[in-house]
Fold:
Amino acid sequence: MSEKKHKCGWCVGDDLYEAYHDLEWGVPLRDEDKLFEFLVLETFQAGLSWITILRKRENFRKALDNFDYKKIATYGEEKIEELLQDAGIIRNKLKIRAVVTNAIKYMEVQEEFGSFSKYIWGFVDNTTILNSYAHYKDAPANTPLSDAVSKDLKKRGFKFVGSTVIYATMQAIGMVNDHEVGCFRYKEVIK
Structure:
């Protein structure tokens, strides 16, 4: 019988949550397409539970042209209305409009910095911040760093990028390692 690995408490008991935790959460991510996907998903997550978003992730992928920010940036009123009728996603008009705006702003950041990855990882000198929390509930909802990133994104015209949304994004894309220190992934995601 194999020994069960200790995981962060927030994911235990749900197969989808555990797979996301084991394979994606906290892994340093620099791929432009995936970074935009996480920004979109975290935007829709604002005020909701992450598991709700994970369960709708494939619906979002289908509805939003596989998170293709170049296509999303061209969405007009007809496409926005279509999305507002799609029961498979979160039908929040402000969030849907924010995703379109953010796609445009995302490309502006790419133009200025060479890539969104260079921009976002520049806030941490391209190195994951390694935290040491014994329990996931000890991790903050935001930090002075997420405040600064949020403020800069808002200044650039991004929407739905409050400090809490940005901190959750930073956790998801591995800018901060908030795996519990006893979690088997804590040391695995360090690069």
About this structure: The chain has a mean pLDDT of 95.
